[in-house]
Specification:
With about 280 residues, the protein is of the alpha/beta class. Helix content is about 40%, strand content about 15%. About 45% of the residues are buried. Pfam families: AP_endonuc_2.
Amino acid sequence: MTITAPTTRHARSVHTLPLLGAAMPSAHLAAHREWLWEGRDLELQDPVSHLVLDGDWRTHAQNIRRDLDGFTGRLGIHGPFWGLTVMAQDPAVRRLTSARLRGGLAMASEIGATHMVVHSPFDFFGHPLVAHTGVTGLDDQLEQVHETLREVVDEARQIGCMLVIENIRDLNPAPLLALVSSFDSGTVQISIDVGHAALMQAKGGPSPDHWIREAGRRLGHVHLQDTDGLLDRHWKPGDGSINWRMVFRALREVQADPRLILELKPEEITAGQQWLVQEGLAR
């Protein structure tokens, strides 16, 4: 695949631009192989499904390893999340969530993945019953997450897999930053989905680039997708209202090396990365 170099109006050398990667089900690897095998980051979405984790996932993982022969980029997975929360009061729910996430880690270990996306449990600024602040029980909420993730974090550390906790419905970066900081470990970092941040900006939250700056050195992973601010569109960059120049300026300024993952429909990945390349923002 030929990647168009930035036009002369862009002063930065293409060699200093950040390298894009992508998320996809393993069934789409062949279609993007040439591009991915340029040392790009890859996130496989297969472990999101309970059908995979409850099935013959070891054989599935072996097939993935075969398909990834010669791949040299950083590899990760999106962990299971449907119907799960890492912040539950009920110990039985905590055990269920922990077991599911450890199932994801088992598959990550089998294919050599070194990051797993976990969803943030925080809702907006909270809601009338849970405000996610120090005077309304944030410490107790963080302890619930620690109880849920204790074994998950230990296993992730043992296999060299970074857990990146992704903003989902978070309006305020502070609770998520407090959560990640509370682990005081390189094993737990922040994932910022710029589309999710843009959705919350429409409801009074900070902009995606502000989220990136707030995360700083704890930023381990970024989902790149565009939106109109109404729904979680997962449009390709340039199709929505996100200020991509500010996003990539913030990425240049933070002292971190996050995995930059296009989280789009598989058939739109090529067009999405080409738009960012043509804008002189990435390669």
